[in-house]
Amino acid sequence: MEVDEDNNPSTFAAEPSVAVPDGQTTMPTADSTPIQPVQPILPPLIPSAVVPPIVPISAIPPPPVVNPLAPLPVRPPVLKPPVPQNGEVKTSDSDSDHEDEGRATAGEYEISEESRLVRERQEKAMQELMMKRRAAALAVPTNDMAVRTRLRRLGEPITLFGEREMERRDRLRMIMAKLDSEGQLEKLMKAHEEEEAAVSAKVEDIEEDIEYPFYTEGPKELLDARNDIAKYSVVKASARIQRARRKRDDPDEDMDAEIDWALKQAGNLVLDCSEIGDDRPLSGCSFSRDGKLLATCSLRGVAKLWSMPRVSKVSALKGHTERATDVTFSPVHDHLATASADRTAKLWNTDGSLLKTFEGHLDRLARIAFHPSGKYLGTTSFDKTWRLWDIDSGVELLLQEGHSRSVYGIAFHQDGSLAASCGLDALARVWDLRSGRSILALEGHVKPVLGVSFSPNGYHLATGGEDNTCRIWDLRKKKSLYTIPAHSNLISQVKFEPQEGYYLVTASYDMTAKVWSGRDFKPVKSLSGHEAKVTASDISEDGRYIVTVSHDRTIKLWTTGNIEKVNDMDLD
Fold first, then answer.
1. pLDDT per residue over 254-297, tens digit each?
2. Which of 5, 23, 259, 556 suits 339 as a labelling partner, its CA being 20 to 30 A distant?
3. Integer Cα distance of 566 and 23 in angstroms
4. The whole model's pTM is what?
5. CA quadruple 59, 62, 65, 68: dihedral sign
6. Residue among 290, 347, 301 at smallest CA distance from 323
7. Looking at 404-511, which runs of residues are DSSP E strands?
8. How many CB atoms are closer than 10 A to CB 490?
């Protein structure tokens, strides 16, 4: 009982502490003589209990104290109709409602890791899409120099290793879009806009408003030539297609047997004749349409005519003041044309008389070719253009740009509708002569392209260049079919067999010329014998002869004639 009594005062001590203001109970103070030492211990307890001494405030519910305790008793009764008599009940109900709603929503829309990743990918894709749209809306210069200047102003590298013009422009667009999204574009481009405004103001003061056409107007002679080429090509294409259909449908026609026979003849090619062509290295050669004459040209600027098959000199054509770069016979008339580094091309008669001189190029000429109709002549030049000339009048019909560097090779389709050009920009382009459009750009070579030739089948095109490879292109599929690692040095010229295109001849600076199958483009024959670079080659109309010329100043004639007789010859 004493222990209980001792405990009871201690338990009630808290309550008297709350009732201290009543002051009537003096008994505990009288009896507290032994408890006097405990009195200093109560003050530390009183501060903890003294915090609520503001008991009168308990009538006003303190939000910080009641809020944490309110949800515990109120949560079990989920009854919605609480009486809004006290702010406590309202706050407790609202908290419980928010918790219930949060739980319900969390239960209904629980997001898995996979869906979160999908959502992130979608957001990233949307950001990229918006970035591309913003980039497309920005005005980016089309001139490469302007693009470089803009990149320099933005503090970016003006070019990257292996970067092309369009790639550089796309990089500038993306940089500008990024800066625009970050809000920095206006600040960085302010100086450039001021400069553009100053330049445009000067231009407006100097020049008047002139409306330029979106195309280059040509002369009336060019329009007439285009109409004539269109009419000519329709007839030739129709005849070629009919011949191909007849060979396909005729049971007596065996294409494989014909190709095998032609390849066998090409495989039997042997050196028939070797002749010194000039005192200087030879640069070009060409057979006449009937195969009775051979023309060659040299770095001395002189072209020579030789009789076939003995390769005896007939005449010399002197007229150029610089080295001659190419020579070719007309497919229709007994005319031949020569090109030179003196920036002119000349038309000659077979008797050695000069007929026309074509002047207009701004730099030395490279290769030349006659149109199949014999009415037009195509010339290429180091002034980055190729031109089309009228044979009868000598008028320049077309000045065609399109290559970024010097144009070197040219060839015409047998139908006469297309022309192919190649140049030092590692590109070959196919042009529609009837409309003047560039219909195909053949990209694949990694170094300058020096030779180009159309196949008589109408859809194959061969190119050869400084990367030592010969590429076969299909004009129907607009892509490269074969890449032939043909030589160990650059390829100077390529030529298809002129009748059916059963084989292809490539000449190279590795001192050889090689024959390739026109069916699968496998090697057939290697023509070795020159002691220096082989600069040009040609094939006779009947396919019996192949001629090569070289820097060793010799003309070598290869034939499928009497092999026993040739073996008895002194090849030296």
1. 888 989 999 999 999 999 999 999 999 999 999 999 999 999 99
2. 556
3. 148
4. 0.63
5. positive
6. 301
7. 407-412, 418-423, 427-432, 437-443, 449-454, 460-465, 470-474, 479-484, 491-496, 503-508
8. 19
